[in-house]
Amino acid sequence: MSPIASRLKTRYWPETRLLASLALPICGAQLAQGGMSVVDVMMTGRLNATALAAVSVGSSLWLPLMLFMTGTLMGVTPIVAQLLGGQRYADIRPAVHQALWVALLLGVLSASLLWLAVAPIFALMDVPPEVANASSAYLSALAFGMPGVALFQALRAFSDGMNHTRPSLWISLIGLGVNIPSNYLLIYGGDGLAAIFGAWLPDVLQQLPPLGAFGCGIATALSMWSMALAMAFYTHRGRAYDSVKVWKRLTWPRASGLRELAVVGLPIGIAIFVEVTLFTLIALFIASLGEITVAAHQIAFSYTGILFMLPLSLSMALTVRVGNTLGQNRPAMARLVAGNGVAISLVAAAINSSLLWVTGAWVIALYTPNPDVQQLAVSLLSLAALYQVSDSLQANLAGALRGYKDTRIVMLITVLSYWCVGLGGGHWLGTRGAGSLSGPLGVHGYWLGLLAGLSTAAVLLGWRLHKISRHPRARGALTT
Predict the structure, then answer these.
(1) Average pLDDT estimate for 458-478
(2) What whole-number distance in Å separates Cα of residue 410 and Cα of residue 460?
(3) C-alpha span between 99 and 111 (Å, rounded)
(4) Half-sphere exposure of residue 145, counting CA atoms within 13 Å on the CB side?
(5) Taking Cα atoms as reference points, which of 169, 171, 156 lies closest to residue 25?
(6) How far is CA 306 from CA 21, 36, 75, 338, in A?
(7) N or C: less crowded end of the chain, CB within 10 Å?
(8) d(CA 340, CA 435)
């Protein structure tokens, strides 16, 4: 056996298997949670257009809040992973408790915003009154679930940091299992159930009124709390957490623990929020280009978003592996783990690009029969196939840097790459074109801006990882 083959077998292959074992359940959990939004849209869409519009508009408000909370609480993962790697089990429980306090605070603040701020926002957006009223009702019900989903994300980040990613998959499936029947019962009421069960349906259920978008909000809140309670029960009873005993004794808020989570987690939350707003702003900018363009953009973005779950899951798993290795005070091995993860991300990018080239036209046809929308969406997927490498690279480079707890520079790079290069450059190309070379490129200009922004992020994050992995102690990557 050649030296290269021997090294691959003894060093890189075991690490690849371990990374995959962590990443695949994370990917399943992400898909299950994304499935809840799909179910909400599908079920309200079958009721009437007003309910569908209400849920769609409402989702544009609560999803960014949830993603900001999720990103902030993802700071728990590298903290726990490093403590676990160093076998500092006694320090894990108070760290998790600080995260739970932060989650509760973020959940209550998010719920308050959804109760108090939506009416002025809808008035500013000039949303039709019937849609605004239905969406306000939807968000007022869903707001009760925001503390629950925040607590779930904190416990999920803890479990991921403990190298146990499968519970988040099963519990996300539980949430989906609660969401679907609750949606059907509350959106359609007794009439909808009677169409299925007929005389077998109890009288009390036949009297339930259809609640539409409001019922959808209740169902989503129920699924959020079901995941939180299931995760709390599992982390209390699961043998995998015996070394931590996270529910043995409550730790009250501590300034040092809250500060560490804020330093590590808040930049992650801001970076994710910046990424979400990038796509939101692009959707607003192209709205004036016509319904064909908007539909094609939304369909292409939806398909690429599903495929992005694979590199995103690898990124989250890579955070755990780098954190574990640094906690063991093995910086050289951490560099190997990070490099191996980045190499695997290139494989994921090749898979996604191939899927886009081979299945793009067929998948687009499933979304819409309109040939004009299909043609434009397929051309956008051609651009998306080109940026899969930079997208996968930037996600996993950021994941490795999170394992080093190096999140502030990642946030700055994200803002520069996404907003300045991606959004600014895309808007210039979309509205003005490439100078004398072409006129305004429309939606293609915005997607070229995405390609430029993601490529810039990949280059800068690669530079940062190379720098910090060579001098982890000097950069504060290892904490005591």
Answers:
(1) 76
(2) 9
(3) 18
(4) 24
(5) 169
(6) 20, 13, 24, 24
(7) C
(8) 41
Closest among 392, 303, 302 to 348, alpha carbons compared: 392
The 8-class DSSP code of residue 419 comes to: I
Q: How do the residues of the chain divide into helix, strand and coil, expressed in percent and rounded to 5?
A: 85, 0, 15
Contacts 24+ apart (CB under 8 A), 264-267: 264/75, 264/78, 264/79, 264/402, 264/405, 264/407, 265/71, 265/72, 265/73, 265/74, 265/75, 265/76, 265/102, 265/407, 266/72, 266/75, 267/407, 267/408, 267/410, 267/411
What does DSSP assign to residue 210?
A: P
- Rounded CA separation 465/410 (Å): 10
Closest C-alpha to 468, from 422, 419, 408, 417: 408
Position 474 scores a pLDDT of: 38
From 367, 274, 384, 283, select the one nearest 56 (Cα to Cα): 283
CA distances from 356 to 292, 297, 305, 377 (A): 21, 15, 12, 11
**Banded model confidence at residue 195, pLDDT cuts 50, 70, 90:** low
Structure-token pair, residue 357: 């080239």
Q: Is residue 198 pLDDT above 90, yes or no?
A: no
**The token pair that represents 61 in the structure block:** 């408000």
| 107 within 8 A of 150, measured Cβ to Cβ | yes
User: Could you give the 3-state DSSP secondary structure of residue 479?
Assistant: coil
Give the residue among 318, 281, 273 at the shortest CA–CA distance from 301: 281
Of the segments 190-199, 286-295, 312-321, which one has the largest average pLDDT value? 312-321
C-alpha 469/C-alpha 118 separation (Å) is 44
* Pair of tokens at residue 450: 């995405």
252: left (phi over 0), alpha (psi -120 to 50) or beta: beta
Concatenating the DSSP letter of every residue in 353-417 gives: HHHHHHHHHHHHHHH---HHHHHHHHHHHHHHHHHHHHHHHHHHHHHHHHHTT--HHHHHHHIII
Distance of CA 448 to the CA centre of its chain: 23
Angle formed by the axes of helices 291-307 and 371-403, to 10°?
A: 40
What is the structure's pLDDT at 475? 42
Kindly report which listed range (122-131, 230-239, 344-353) carries the lowest average pLDDT score.
Answer: 122-131
Q: Which two tokens stand for residue 283?
A: 């959707």
- What distance in Å separates the CA atoms of residue 96 and residue 467, rounded to the nearest whole number? 30
Token reading at 14: 């075991």
DSSP per-residue string spanning 30-46 = HHHHHHHHHHHHHHHHH
